[in-house]
Design goal:
Number of strands: 6
Shape: globular
Strand content: 15-25%
Radius of gyration: 16 Å
Distance between the termini: 21 Å
Amino acid sequence: EIPGKKPGKVIMLGAHQDCHLKAGADDTGAVATVMTIAKAMVMAGYKPEATIRFLFTSSEEYGKINTVYDWQHGATEAMIAHPEWTYETVAFMNYEVMPQKGGVPMFRGVPELTAAVERCKEKMSGDVYPGKINVESMLLSIADDWVVTANGIPSVSITSMRAEDYFGRYHTTEDRIENIDYDAMRQIATLILPG
């Protein structure tokens, strides 16, 4: 955590590792992106208004039979272990499948957060963020932000992938580190810091 100036307010940034794979874009690249954001904030001496909490979970693609959530085991366990997060966390940014070379950034989440992204979209394009940006007000039940939102925390998932060819590599040994775009990782990490 990086303590904020306003006690009791938290913004959480997270990424996961799958149970069975340690794939490049899903989600090792996102874990590295969030760690880069954390390192940049610490190195810059950043003093946020709200506390910034970094959450790394495991076993996103694994669950237990006859449980409330059969996927996102790590996120579920984190929310069970920390019920106070529901009351202090104002937003969860879930970094998912990124940053793939040639990827198109997408923000997908609850309407109140995607509306904020839409308001900032113009400032995020060009040199600040790689390529065009897609925004959708929806959640998918196959990512950690589903569990976090179900526990009362507004969430948005951030991806950067080439949808036209990524799904042929998804959850296979072909999702390799060679497909990660480190310049896009830098741009995504820079975006989260104040200008």
